[in-house]
Amino acid sequence: MTEIFNMFRITAAESQKIMHSVNEPHAHNFEELIIGGQGQLEHFIDFKSRLMDAPFISFVTQGKIHRVKPLLKDGKCDMWVLRFKSEFIAETTFSLYASFHDKANISMQSNKCFEKLDTICKIIYDEYQQEAPDLSVIRQLLSALFTIIESERRKLNLNDDESKKIQSSTFKNFLRLLEEHYKEPKDVNFYADKLFMSSRNLNLICQNILQQSVTEIIEIRKLTQAKNLLMSTDKNVAEIGYELGFNEKTYFTHAFKRKAGLTPTEFREEIQKQLS
Fold first, then answer.
1. Pairing between β-strand 66-71 and β-strand 40-45 as defined by DSSP bridges
2. What is the pLDDT of residues 109-143, one digit of tens each?
3. pLDDT recorded at residue 212
4. What's the mean pLDDT in 37-63?
5. CA distance linking residue 34 with residue 83, whole number of Å
6. What span, in angstroms and rounded, lies between the C-alpha atoms of 93 and 99?
């Protein structure tokens, strides 16, 4: 996607077209929000597949490998798809990454909240269809969408107070640094030095927010990328390990199995079975 924002609607007819087209797991260079009012969504993400009945919300952060199949239910399908670059609503997007980490999908209820989301989507779409759409209007409405979604997440007790946790500017800065350096063999001291604090305090912040140490968070980020590469490329295990800062194939294989429960080769075979 080259534009900073785009939007479309998946109807029953469009659902049928997608089902008869090539639809392989892929990653985006943009963020994607799917709001489903009717139908079903078969969503492969976070290395597992889930079938959801509408109404639902799904948020896919850029770089996550996934595949969606919009399906008919009772002959109906109606879903909004909004795509945008991270910089379009930068701070909101960062908060979303934290909120939707390992929880890409939310099952909703047919209530006033969902009616609000649908109404805002219609207004955004109307503006987007204009000859010269006002992106500042779209940005404000998109932010409003996510505010309502976040409120609903809290009501459904899906957040575990994450909305408060992600206010930590130190944690935000740590995650930004992690995205820049996770492929390098950097330890907790490197990140603590970059943040002008002790490694102990950085660990305390991460434990408070994610109940994980800095080392665990780094390992999980490497593991996620390793899974992405095993699923989406033909690179061998040694090449993937080297790309992620592991100089020894055996060490990479051991670290991967310790976290994933499977060796890299076993994981690749299992994913290929799921997607066949």
1. antiparallel
2. 767 778 889 999 999 999 999 998 998 899 899 98
3. 82
4. 87
5. 9
6. 10
What's CA 166's distance to the chain center, in Å?
A: 16
* Rounded-to-integer distance, Cα 233 and Cα 240, Å: 9
Which strand (E) or helix (H) includes residue 56? strand 56-60
Is 72:12 a contact under the CB 8 Å cutoff? yes
Structure-block tokens of residue 180: 């820049």
Residues 190/174, Cβ–Cβ less than 8 Å: no
How do beta strands 78-84 and 5-10 pair?
antiparallel
Contact 270, 262 (CB under 8 A): yes
Higher pLDDT, 200 or 48: 200
Residue 66 to residue 47: CA distance in whole angstroms: 8
Q: Give the contacts of 38 (CB within 8 A, at least 6 positions apart).
A: 54, 73, 76, 77, 78, 79
The DSSP element (H or E) to which 43 belongs, if any, is strand 40-45
Task: Determine the Cα–Cα distance for residues 21 and 16; give it in Å rounded to an integer.
Answer: 9
Residues ≥6 apart with Cβ < 8 Å to 274: 44, 48, 49
User: How far is the C-alpha of 219 from the C-alpha of 216, rounded, in Å?
Assistant: 5
Is a pLDDT exceeding 60 seen at residue 194?
Answer: yes
- The single residue listed with the structure tokens 């260079």 is 29
Buried b (16+ CB within 10 A) or exposed e, 57-95: bbbbbbebbbebebbeeeeebbbbbbbbbbebbeebbbb
Q: How many Å apart are CA 40 and CA 18, to the nearest integer?
A: 13
pTM of the predicted model, to two decimals?
Answer: 0.65
Q: What are phi and psi of 216, to 5 degrees?
A: -65, -40
Calculate helix-pair angle for 214-232, 264-275, nearest 10 degrees.
50
First to last CA, the chain: 27
Measured between alpha carbons, how far is 213 from 200 in angstroms, rounded to an integer?
Answer: 10
pLDDT in tens, 135-177: 889 989 998 888 888 777 767 655 455 545 544 678 888 988 9
